Amino acid sequence: MTFVHDTLTVFNRQLRLSLRNPAWVVIALMQPILYLALFGPLLTKLPAGTLDGGAGTGGTADAYRFFVPGLLIQLGLFGSTFVGFAIISDWRGGVIERYRVTPVSRLSIMLGRVLRDVIVLVVQAVILVLAGVAFGLRAPVTAVLLSLGFIVLVAVGLASVSYATALTLKSEDAFAPMLNSVIVPLVLLSGIMLPMTLAPGWLQGVARISPFRYIIDAMREAFAGHYANTIMLEGVAVAFGLALVCLWLGSRVFIKENA
Amino acid sequence: MSIIEAQGLARTFKSRKRTVEAVRGVDLRVSGGEIVGFLGPNGAGKTTTLRMLTTLLEPTAGTATVAGADLLRDPVGVRRRIGYVPQAIGQTMGGTDPGALVEEELHEQAALYRLGKADARRRADQLIAQLDLGGLDRRLVKTLSGGQRRRLEIALGLVHEPSLVFLDEPTTGLDPQSRSNLWDHIRRLRSGMGTTVFLTTHYLEEADALCDRVFIIDHGVIVAEGTPDELKRRVSGDVVILQVNGARQRARELLAAHDIVQDVTATDDGTLRLNVAHGAEALPVLLRVLDDAGVTMASINLSRPTLDDVFLTMTGRSLRDDSASARQDGSAGAGAAGDAGGSSGTANAAANAAADADADAADAGSADSATAGTRR
């Protein structure tokens, strides 16, 4: 019980600090909304079958069923990986050290923050989906809820690993280029903008290394109304696997004696 | 009963190229209710030792019992019973978030010690009153002055009413008024609640004014231990500083020849500095010697040795010019220890040297510290 209490204590603090400047939650949405508004329309002009591996009908609804899952993952890739910056400034402020001398569980110091990041990302995801609907997205509610489930797992994984990396590097100057060098290839290899099926064989092969590729594919299946197939199974397995591995990596750093 | 007992506490840091022995085996015994100071220059191993005693750093060797819990087997037990206030300069700051409200910080810190909401509010109100933070509870931390913020950080370390509190460089970077004010607060911790205070400092005045007992640490080992007076007594004798009208060389020869004088040095500012065993007895003798020789004096000043002299005697160097060693330790990768505040800490010490004198005068504690002020 103390573990839950500790995690909630850390969560409450982080949430309160976030809510003190709620504008940032909205400003972080600017990037995906711009993509939705300025890149989405390009996809609506593609011939039928381009986006869904030959099965798609083409047109606006089809384009956004393809694009919104990709943007949700992109939101996570940028939003949840940047949380590490905050922990560097907290470390520099001596806040992390102060927490580590209290009896509070050291894992809670991370989990309370991750929980806040999950909430923030889910709120952003809901707004993004609603914006998508405004642009012409038509998808089953079940698919949207399922996507939010994926988003939760992605946020847990990315935020944990972001905190762990940032707390190990302890320098914004090192963390920023590190993020860039990881995120850009992941964005490119996950088929966020265009389907990886358009890629030549070697690139499709390389893209198999991005876990987000599987998650996006599964979300797109759901948006198209298909829930029971191998793609969905792969997506769910990869999402859980990613979250668990990243949580484990993160907790190792936080439990370590000298973080 | 001792509240801290440590044997052979040691810590080495390994970097790719070399191994740094930040602390090489420290034995400590602190009794309940004491105010104890850990005195040493930057990079001496003060903070590393403190971080080991507060469970932030695992010792590479040695054992310790802190506040009744075993440091290695029950670190959570130690954490539950101690308070810790990190240093507010150098690599990391004092532990408050600039974007948080004062009362929020206090309530949340209480929650970290699993105090209930009502208890948390009660303690926060007590501490706000006790540490002169009244009226600041709804202010953002970033709007506080340096002294206010430091007092908040100390309040955070006291939320759970620990019997033992560690203060890492509690007054570094504060102006003289805030510093002597904070000294009063630290004294009151002991007199009011019987709290044991373990602090580190590189200010001799602070150790002198505040501590019942002082450990002098240098290069990772404790080189001396005792009450400030005991330590000062170890430096043989007192210091007499006198200024003669002309005939300085002759006066110097006369005095050097006398049995009662152990050593004479001519200082740059035109005075003579004499070491004597018992200053009070030596003064009339010195006066007579000079008078007989027809040398007149402009001034004479007797002062007992300060901890600065003790440090000089024990380590062969002055606390004031520790920059070389600090720089050396900093580059050796002891940065991880947090102790090597490096050049910034040193610059700070230098900038504060003048301010210290004022603080002492304002404090008007012992005659020793008053002389320490005038001698500098």
List the helices and strands and how they pair.
The complex is a heterodimer of chains A (259) and B (376).
Chain A: H1 2-20, H2 23-27, H3 30-38, H4 40-44, H5 60-79, H6 84-92, H7 95-100, H8 106-135, H9 141-169, H10 172-189, H11 201-207, H12 211-223, H13 230-255
Chain B: E1 2-14, E2 19-31, E3 35-39, H1 46-53, E4 61-66, E5 69-70, H2 75-81, E6 82-85, H3 102-112, H4 117-130, H5 146-158, E7 164-168, H6 176-193, E8 196-201, H7 204-210, E9 213-218, E10 221-226, H8 228-234, E11 238-244, H9 248-257, E12 261-266, E13 272-276, H10 279-292, E14 297-303, H11 307-315, H12 323-331, H13 342-363, H14 367-375
Parallel strand pairs in B: 3-8, 3-9, 6-7, 7-8
Antiparallel strand pairs in B: 1-2, 1-4, 4-5, 9-10, 11-13, 11-14, 12-13
Helix pairs in contact in B: 3-4, 3-5, 6-13, 12-13, 13-14
What's the β-strand tally of chain B? 14
Q: Beta fraction of the residues of chain B? A: 15-25%
Tally of alpha and pi helices of chain A: 13
- How would you sum up the major sheet of chain A? none
Please name the defining characteristics of this protein:
heterodimer; A: 259 residues; mainly alpha; elongated; B: 376 residues; alpha/beta; Rossmann fold; Alpha-Beta Plaits; 2 domains; six-stranded mixed beta sheet; four-stranded antiparallel beta sheet; 14 helices; 14 strands; 42% helix; 24% strand; disordered C terminus
Write structural notes for this entry.
The complex is a heterodimer of chains A (259) and B (376). The two termini of chain A are 25 Å apart. Chain A is elongated and about 60 Å long. In chain A, α9 (141-169) runs antiparallel to α12. The longest helix of chain A is centred in the middle third of the chain and has 30 residues, at 106-135. Chain A has helices at 2-20, 23-27, 30-38, 40-44, 60-79, 84-92, 95-100, 106-135, 141-169, 172-189, 201-207, 211-223, 230-255. Chain A contains 13 helices and no strands. Chain A is an all-alpha fold and 259 residues long. Chain A has one domain. By secondary structure, chain B is of the alpha/beta class. Chain B folds into 2 domains: 2-232, 3-Layer(aba) Sandwich (Rossmann fold), CATH 3.40.50; 236-303, Alpha-Beta Plaits, CATH 3.30.70. Helix content of chain B is 42%, strand content 24%. Chain B has helices at residues 46-53, 75-81, 102-112, 117-130, 146-158, 176-193, 204-210, 228-234, 248-257, 279-292, 307-315, 323-331, 342-363, 367-375, and strands spanning 2-14, 19-31, 35-39, 61-66, 69-70, 82-85, 164-168, 196-201, 213-218, 221-226, 238-244, 261-266, 272-276, 297-303. In chain B, the strands form 3 sheets. Chain B has a 6-stranded mixed beta sheet with strand order 6-7-8-3-9-10, with helices on both faces. A 4-stranded antiparallel beta sheet of chain B has the order 2-1-4-5, with helices on one face. In chain B, strands 12-13-11-14 form a 4-stranded antiparallel beta sheet, with helices on both faces. The longest helix of chain B is centred in the C-terminal third of the chain and has 22 residues, at 342-363. Chain B is elongated. Chains A and B meet through α1, α6 and α7 of A and α2 and α3 of B.
